[in-house]
Amino acid sequence: MYLRMVEATVKKEDEQKLAQIYTDKIISVFERTEGCLFAGLLHSQEKSDRYISLTIWRSESDANSYVRSGKYDENIESIQHVLDTGSEWKIQLSSENTVEYVPVPAGPEIKAYPAVIDEETIPKKVPSGRRFLRILSLKINKGQREEFTKIYEKEILPELKKISGCRYAFLLDNTESSNEMISLTIWDDLKSIELYEKHGKFKGFLQKVNHTLGGLYHWKMAFEERSKTVKTVTSQDIGISKFTLVTGKDFR
Predict the structure, then answer these.
(1) Less packed terminus of the chain by CB within 10 Å, N or C?
(2) What phi, psi does 251 have (nearest 5°)?
(3) 171-176: long-range contacts at Cβ-Cβ below 8 A with a sequence spacing of 24 or more?
(4) What is the residue range of 213's domain?
């Protein structure tokens, strides 16, 4: 399995247009594309102008074939007018050798991961607007991939399936590029996610894999335990993002 996420910033006044284009056009493109199992449009809970197109593929080869076919470029072209060009600028010399400021387009960001899952865990016919997706990013020590995966599959995944409101859970492997493992879960509502995070279950799962996490994360935890008033940021911090599923479809 292979998961691909294309993240972009959307003009606030065009958010409904994006959802309509995705539903009417883009989903049908994926449906006709060999190897695409699921496609969905996600809306960030933390950043209201951020959206993700999430697709799940039978293989990395199928996802790459989709890009080479030109369909990806066609999909981006169909929504280009609703994307925010951004407010970032760069300084350069003009043809007259004078300094000028040029806007830098905020193009879509692409992330892709092999998935450590069985095809049966992929949601079927997920109702739009009724599901929430949570992405947990963990940086692990080199050589700990197998240990982390074993604990997740044998100890954490079975418990996640028992938690009220949690419908699906699977693991993504990004260790080859950044020693990152990603837990992706789909929920009925935000309240279920909040209860999971606040009532100790999430903390208990972290303790199970604590010995596999990076050294900077352990340093941060020890430092903040000693200094209750100081918060630190490291490259190995745990990342948590939440999204609403706007629209989606299973193609199997």
Answers:
(1) C
(2) -110, 5
(3) 171/115, 171/116, 171/117, 172/3, 172/113, 172/114, 172/115, 172/116, 173/113, 173/114, 173/115, 173/116, 173/145, 173/149, 174/113, 175/140, 175/145
(4) 125-245+248-252
Asked if 129 and 241 sit in the same domain, the reply is yes
- Reported as a single tens digit per residue, the pLDDT across 28-48 is 999 999 999 889 999 998 888
Residue 224 reports pLDDT greater than 50: no
How many domains does the structure of the chain reveal? 2
Does residue 120 surpass a pLDDT of 70? no
Residues 52 and 166 in one domain: no
Question: Between the CA atoms of 13, 17, 239 and 145, what dihedral angle is there, to the nearest 10 degrees?
Answer: -160
Query: Does 177 share its domain with 209?
Result: yes
List CB contacts of 79: < 8 A, sequence separation 6 or more.
8, 18, 21, 22, 26
Is the pLDDT higher at 174 or at 176? 174
Q: What is the CATH number of the domain that holds 44?
A: 3.30.70.100
Q: Where a domain ends, among 93, 116, 139?
A: 116
Would the pTM count as exceeding 0.85?
no
